[in-house]
Amino acid sequence: MEEADDVLLMERFRDGDRSALEALVDRHHASLVRYFFHQSRSWETAEDLAQETWVRIIRHRAHYQPTARFQTYLFSIARNLWIDRYRSQKAAPPTFSADREVGGEEGEGVALATLLPGKEPEPSERASVHEEAGRIREALEDLPEGLRQVFELGEIQGLKYTEVGSILDIPVGTVKSRMHAAIQRLRQALAPRRGGKPAGKGPS
Hints:
Elements: H1 2-14, H2 18-40, H3 43-59, H4 70-86, E1 101-102, E2 110-111, H5 126-142, H6 145-156, H7 161-168, H8 172-190, E3 193-194, E4 197-198
Antiparallel strand pairs: 1-2, 3-4
């Protein structure tokens, strides 16, 4: 089982096996880079921070205890690094496929693409695809930080709610409520527009 393998690899590395670290890097480095890219919108910054995350793991390996999945441990370090270095700067919005379903763990899986006016675009309509992608980016950027962090870790990184709660140091119930709120806000923000106003809203 991969989760157990990760823990065993980290324990082996803690005890001096450098090849175990190489295996962990091979397995998790790409997702770590994606996480930092979603925060910084810079591949160069993302790569630098991912490498520094591994440096922190190396420095603190002697204190490692397998109290959680390795992925939870990894992203806890990554989030703390991001806070240390870049919290004072406004992070650009994360991006991901509009076809991916979100909120699936709670049984309300929905693809963001279904929240947009939807038919397969003709070649002449490709400009509208870019416009819709921009709407998704803006909607994600407009989420309050607490909702965006939960959404990024739970949906973009695919972590379990218990793991998200551990990383953010909040109860699982708070993770669920924030995820629900994030999805509702995205639904509202991405709803088809009528007459220049979001659908479902009457005259002000």
